[in-house]
Amino acid sequence: MNAAILPDTTTPDALWIKNGRVIDPANGRDATGDVFALNGRIVEGLSAGQRAGARVVDAAGLVVAPGFVDIHARLGEPGNTARETIRSATRAAAAGGYTTLVCMPDTTPPADNVGTVQLIKEIAAKTALVHVHPAGTITLGHRGEKLAPIGSLRGAGVVAITDGIGGVQNNEIMRRALEYSTLFNIPVLDHCQDSSMTRGAVMHEGEWSVRLGLRGFPAAAEEIVVASDILLARLTGARLHLQHITAANSVQLIRQAKAQGVPVTAEVAADHLLLTHAALHDYNTHLKLAAPLREEADRRALIGGLADGTIDAVVSDHSPVTPTEKDCEFDYAPFGAIGLETAFSVALEALCPARGGAGALPLALVVEKFTCAPARALNLGAGTLSVGQRADVVVFSPVEAWTPSADGFHSRSMNSPHIGRVLRGRVRGTFVDGRQVFPFA
Amino acid sequence: MIAATAAEWTRKDLTAIEELSPSEIGAVFAQADVFKPLLESREKLVSLHGQTLVNLFLEPSTRTRTAFEVSAKRLGADVISISGNASSLVKGETLRDTALNIRALNADMIVMRHSAAGAAAYLARVLDIPVINAGDGAHAHPTQALLDAYTLRERFGVGPGRGIEGRRVTILGDILFSRVARSNIHCLTKLGVRVTLAGPPTLVPGTFAMFPGVRVVHDLNVALEGADAVMLLRIQHERQTTTHFPSLGEYTSMFGLNRERMGLLAPHAIIMHPGPINRGVEVESEIADDPARSVILAQVNNGIAVRMGVLHLCAHRSRRQPEQ
């Protein structure tokens, strides 16, 4: 058995993680070895003196990889601190192996102005355990009517723009947003949904919505916007990134677009790799997701899309909602599930061959989907163990079993679809800028 | 007599037909058979004597609420009816708090109608007293399905060459938004009835054919051909607005049951409707009033015996539990 990584109360300048299986997809590295960091950066090696004063972590039997990069998370601040704070979300992130988060702008008030972006950055600077990059809105108040000050938002440090749940409904607005975004080379993220087709919808439209008597999101409502977004990206040449894709036909549309050279990337939420709409059979509001769980054929198509590179990244789609808000009739419960602490384990469960996963992805490819691939999609310059990079590192066991429980989350919320489910693959240690942030000191 | 049927009933709640076994459905029918002959006498029974039943109707209803009230009173219960609007409830008190408050007022049973699917099952998890679903969104309306099947059984009798197994029942109209249709699909197919669902594809999506024993037919003539019974569903024109069919007039011309179409049915076929009827929309007035064909009022009357059966079974099951 491998030794436990204990909390670190010291803050040495040097870090030496030794004897692990180092998986660094960006550099094609997958071999047993050591990872070194000095003054927060990855280095080739440490001198004898530096080694003597280093924090040494024995990773024998464990995997050492770049810290995970989540490009789709909601951190609760500003405005929803009952659900989450940047402090609690980044603790959850650290426990889940993440070292970089991109936070969605549909906060209260929304990040459609420089002040809110600065506030998020200030709170993060004071309280965050991991790197936090804000996204801005595409339109004012993410209402889809008038463009937000995208240039100013970029100046304030947003790494992407998106209108979040609901997406952009008007093709003219989307076209102009994409066109304008090329001024700043900033990726435009869209939640693909034709809302004229989804009034009252609370789950995937299919056999289970018919059984349960619930209104459904037809897959076509997503596919239509995937198609129109791709056409607009081709028209404008802008960087388009499609968020939490759920439908098999969407995967096919993206595959075609990439083959034609359209500058598009795409992500899938980890839960969609493991679960389908059948999981909603008892009206569990923790499974009520804005990108709905769909059918087995969709789940398999998503895995196929990851395998062949059509889908670039796996995201947590972390959406904290308080127990009180979720404890109600299914129709009235807010959408969303937390995911930062479970996403990687869920993805391993769904994807890895040793576990009978349908997609049979090599572990290194799964790691890529959590590290350099999402970072590349949003130009974040993270997710690698290249010398000179920030020393953001995760150490995990790919086989250790654990069972999420309602009171075991570091997030302020506990709206997880995985409470009581045995998951395999567990984060043992997380390091940001060469400093250990998990296990917590 | 009572113990013989109650022994087969182990449920605290009745929230949906889907989870019932055919023998549990039989237990309800047997209990309704016990109560039905007593309805004429106007005599009050003692089954629920000293118990308080709360009718929590968070969506407008007259007949189901009244039927439960009559049923509970005939069984000797005290009945309190609370009407409201679920959406206004959402803004203030939660369903959990409403229910816990009702429980704290010493209610012994709750009958609930709610506009949200799954609400009854939710309430049944929250409360330790019986919860009877009187309709939850488009999901389920179990007592309506039980009384419909009970009425069919009564009409077609029992014994060789009789009974409802193998009969053909066509459910016509707004299936998509109908809890009555869903509960009837489960109830009838469990009893061996062959079910045809008919109406425009916008209201009767092909997905419904996934249920074993169910076929979906959009040609009304085919759907009616040789049917032993037609269950009409109310067209909820206030709900579908403009997107599911062009107009009530067009609906009536294409899917309304009229005298001409009656000729397609089996000669003995009966007409059913859960009410309230839109006369002249889903059915011609004369057909609804034809005593040889229409069992619409018999359904209402059977609704009392069947609901008495359900209340009795759930109450007598639930009372045993705390003593164990």
Folded structure, characterized:
The complex is a heterodimer of chains A (441) and B (324). With 441 residues, chain A is of the alpha/beta class. Chain A has two domains: 14-64 and 392-438, Urease, subunit C, domain 1, CATH 2.30.40.10; 67-377, Alpha-Beta Barrel (TIM Barrel). Helix content of chain A is 29%, strand content 21%. Chain A is built from 14 helices and 18 strands. In chain A, the strands form four sheets. In chain A, strands 1, 2, 3, 4, 5, 16, 17 and 18 form an eight-stranded mixed beta sheet that branches. Chain A is globular. Chain B has 324 residues and is of the alpha/beta class. In chain B, helix 7 (142-156) packs across helix 8 (179-190). Residues 318-324 of chain B have low confidence and may be disordered. Chain B has two domains: 2-141 and 302-319, 3-Layer(aba) Sandwich (Rossmann fold), CATH 3.40.50.1370; 143-300, Rossmann fold (3-Layer(aba) Sandwich). The longest helix of chain B has 28 residues, at 296-323. In chain B, the strands form two sheets. Chain B has a five-stranded parallel beta sheet. In chain B, strands 2-1-3-4 form a four-stranded parallel beta sheet, with helices on both faces. Chain B has helices at 2-6, 22-35, 63-74, 86-91, 95-104, 119-126, 142-156, 179-190, 220-224, 237-240, 248-255, 259-262, 285-289, 296-323, and strands at 52-57, 78-83, 109-114, 131-136, 168-172, 194-198, 214-217, 229-232, 270-272. Classes of the chains: A alpha/beta (441), B alpha/beta (324).
In short:
The complex is a heterodimer of chains A (441) and B (324). Chain A is of the alpha/beta class.
Describe the strand arrangement of the main beta sheet of chain B, using strand numbers: 7-6-5-8-9
* The CATH architecture of the largest domain in chain A: Alpha-Beta Barrel
What is the count of structural domains of chain A?
A: 2
Helix vs. strand class of chain B? alpha/beta
Strand elements of chain A, count: 18
**Helix fraction of chain B?**
40-55%
